[in-house]
User: What shape does this take?
Amino acid sequence: MRKLHLSFRQPSPSQLFCLQAAIAIVLLSLLYWVSVQHWAGEIDEGLFNKVRQIRLLPPNEIPAHIAMSTSEDPDNRRPLGYFGPHGEHIVGVIATLPSKVDGKPFDYIATLGHHADDMPHHYRGVAVRLPSGAILITARLIDGERRFDNFLLLIAGCSLVIALVVGMASGALLNAAAARRLRDVRRATQRIASGRLDHRLPLSGRGDDIDKITSVVNSMLDEVERLIRDIQGICAGIAHEVRTPMTRMRSGLESARCNTTSVAEYEQVVEAALQQSDIIMTRFSALLRIAQIGEAASLAQKSQLNLQDVLDDVIDFYEAAAEELSLTLEFKPCVPAIINGEADLLFSAFGNLIENALKFTPPGGAITVTLHQGDGKMTVQVTDTGPGIPVAERNLVFQPFYRAQHPTGTTTTGSGIGLSLVAAIARLHNAHVSIREGGPGCCIAVVFESEMPMKQPDASGDRPFSLNRTLRS
Assistant: This one.
């Protein structure tokens, strides 16, 4: 197998050039051969017709016919020669017999004129023995055909040279352009390898194969840069989130060691320390949840499900909480939207969005969940009448531990993990989350690529799956 693989390896530029030259030479040689065979066949047909015409004459009339034909052809364009059975010349301008009298056409050079300045000419003739034993030679001048052949050879040679020069020049230009592009790619790769992850491989804009590969690599670099920034943000968030409860815990323990004298006071200090440790464990549990969702891309048991059914379950679960807060929770469905997904994860994602809306919407407000399809996509929108999210923070709120600012300037409560979970679950389902302009409040949209054709619900009204309404933290 290795020998077979090596025998079909990519040829070098020099080998390709030699192959092109060989193909050009073969094609031009074939053109020359076809041209020669064409005019030679036509001339041979005329010679044999002349032989057949003379064969039909009585033997005693043949010399007179040849003499008359010779007198009518002063330029010797169609010369004739007539010889006796023993090779003696009888009549005609051709006075010399060929080496073979076999009835096959042959080419020869002769001077048939009677002037001293006559030049040799090229002829094609045929020599046959007649039934009487005499030998007849008929020929035709082929100087014009030979000149055409020489001109054809000249044109073919010049064309070959021009083609080879143009091919070499084009190859050199293409090779230089490819080398320049590869050099730019190599330099960009070296900059990226040195840690400058904001750089990307250059695109020529021609949309060729190299551009397609470069686009894929740039997309991969975008994802790598995003992941590294997420890691940096998580590390900074961990340091920030853990530092405060750890500082409080240490301060309480130090104070207890110096000032506490009773068992009741020690119990208070221990209780406060446990509360701070619970806060830390909550942060780490949220991070572990994000990591588990990231791994779920290969572990999740996806199946066909209807987004409308998932949203119905989410609305039912949070409806009581909305009533307690004097809020209106409304769901606007559309035709069934079928995707491949994991029901519990989607329930958790939509539940986080509704929890955020419940947290920020003032009493008397409304939360609207809509599901609609269009342009081959399915969109789930959660809109509320709360204060909304400032434009400058709309991309930041999807980072772990980031908490938006209230209009009053205070930081919102919570772990800052909810929207990060939503974004991770959306990526697992080939969807993306964005914050849109939705009026005075906040409008968060989750857009899914349509994976299944729309279909009408079953006549029985049964749902295609059973969902456990347990909100996962």
Remarks:
- The first helix runs from residue 2 to 7.
